[in-house]
Design brief:
By secondary structure, the chain is mainly alpha-helical. 79% of the residues lie in helices and 0% in strands. Helix 11 packs parallel to helix 14. The longest helix has 33 residues. The N and C termini lie close together (6 Å).
């Protein structure tokens, strides 16, 4: 398969270009809210590690609870329509919260968690719908490039949104940042309205009943379990989040302790390094993803390398809080971004269109469950002072290294054959 260039796909595929712009608007806004939630949780709890980790855990567990249903919906209803509804719902949630000052109740921490859950509920359908929609507007030659560019765009949005969001909060306050976020969701919805339909085929769809919903969900799990070329890939992102959930939370704690100036600005700078790294990894590593001999091992290698650089971070803290720290964060998350794009592309290619939403749901379920468990465990350890910050960082990294080695060692001979098939659909 010949590769399609980044500029080429943006120039020639008008539908993908519009989707990419809409995603950028939405994702930039997302990070304004996320940084605000971390800051609010810290303010409400005197920077309690467990309370701050609770924001990430609340978001992760809420999303995990919804993914079986959102994936099923993406296989039943217009994926374009679901993305529009998701953005509009997020806009409405933020507008209501800001209009009635719901973040400034007597129980401020509870209000923060409420907003975290409400935003996850509003946005939960967007990623499975987009995940299932993308192969309907991109051909086989374009799909890897589209995923790499989409991951790069998400990462740029993270870097830009987190850094500007942190600076906006520091300069103008949380309310202004959240209103900016609300407007990005509205703009994204308007852009998505210009896209073509993009599936699924609903000509034989049954009416929605509890029995049909249950059957659709269980059929999706049967499909995954009966297809080894899909089954193993849906846990690929969870391998990274086994330690990565803790690491995202630990970046907040490092930002609080590090001398980057204002806390919000410090957290924004660290998340900027994470975001730019996540985008650089898959875009720079795209040639490796096409190497059929390495393909069975790349996901494990990427997860292990992510852990290795957090080991280095644990060793340099607290001796170098600035430049070297940012470089290590950048490289580690470049490797995690590589893992994301590699696993996503393979899963999309190997899943039938009628199953793609439910496969995405299983993928995100494994990711978010592991992320929530990882974050809340790290918060609990720090809250009770069982380990120090640098020791928790090292522990999270060690878990990733073990998971990466496990992925490589446990690759079966049959799976290696599947990864090396010369089928034009599978040959990246």
């Amino acid at each position: 398969m010949s590769g399609v260039g980044y500029i080429q796909i943006l120039k020639n595929n008008h539908s993908f270009r519009r989707l990419f712009i809409a995603q950028e608007l939405s994702y930039i806004g997302d990070w304004f809210t996320v940084i605000a939630l971390f800051i609010l949780a810290g303010d409400a709890s005197d920077n309690s590690p467990l309370a701050i980790a609770g924001v990430l855990a609340t978001r992760s567990f809420s999303l995990a609870a919804m993914t079986p249903f959102t994936g099923m919906l993406a296989d039943r209803y217009s994926r374009k329509g679901l993305m529009i509804c998701s953005d509009l719902a997020a806009f409405i949630v933020l507008a209501i919260v800001l209009q009635f000052d719901l973040l400034y109740t007597d129980n401020k921490l509870l209000s923060v968690y409420f907003l975290a859950v409400a935003m996850v509920a509003a946005k939960s359908i967007f990623d499975p719908a987009q995940y299932a929609y993308l192969p309907n507007i991109c051909n086989d030659d374009e799909l890897l490039t589209a995923n790499a560019l989409g991951s790069g765009g998400w990462s740029i949005a993270l870097g830009v949104g987190a850094s500007i969001g942190g600076l906006t909060i520091a300069e103008y306050g949380i309310t202004v940042a959240l209103w900016i976020d609300a407007l990005t969701f509205l703009s994204s919805a308007i852009y998505i309205m210009t896209l073509p339909f993009g599936g699924p085929d609903t000509s034989e769809r049954e009416n929605m009943t509890p029995k049909v919903v249950t059957k659709n969900i269980t059929d999706g799990w049967k499909y995954i379990l009966q297809n080894p070329e899909v089954r193993r890939l849906v846990i690929a992102k969870a391998l990274w989040s086994s330690g990565g959930g803790a690491q995202i939370f630990l970046l907040i704690m490092i930002g609080i302790e590090a001398d980057f100036g204002d806390i919000a600005a410090g957290i924004g700078i660290l998340f900027m390094a994470r975001g730019f790294g996540s985008g650089f990894g898959p875009m720079a590593g795209r040639p490796l993803m096409r190497n059929k001999l390495l393909r069975p091992y790349l996901i494990g290698l990427a997860v292990g390398i992510s852990g290795i650089f957090y080991i280095i971070i644990s060793l340099i803290l607290p001796y170098d809080w600035n430049n070297l720290l940012l470089v290590m964060v950048f490289i580690s998350h470049a490797s995690s971004g590589f893992n994301w794009v590699q696993s996503t592309t393979l899963t999309q290619e190997r899943s039938g269109d009628e199953w793609r939403g439910r496969v995405a749901g299983a993928d995100f379920l494994a990711l978010t469950l592991m992320m929530g468990i990882s974050a809340i465990t790290a918060g609990f350890i720090l809250e009770n002072e069982f380990l120090q910050l640098r020791e928790v960082i090292a522990l999270s990294a060690l878990i990733q290294i073990i998971m990466g080695i496990g992925w490589i060692v446990l690759a079966s001979p049959k799976e290696k054959v599947i990864f090396n098939l010369e089928d034009p659909v599978l040959n990246l």
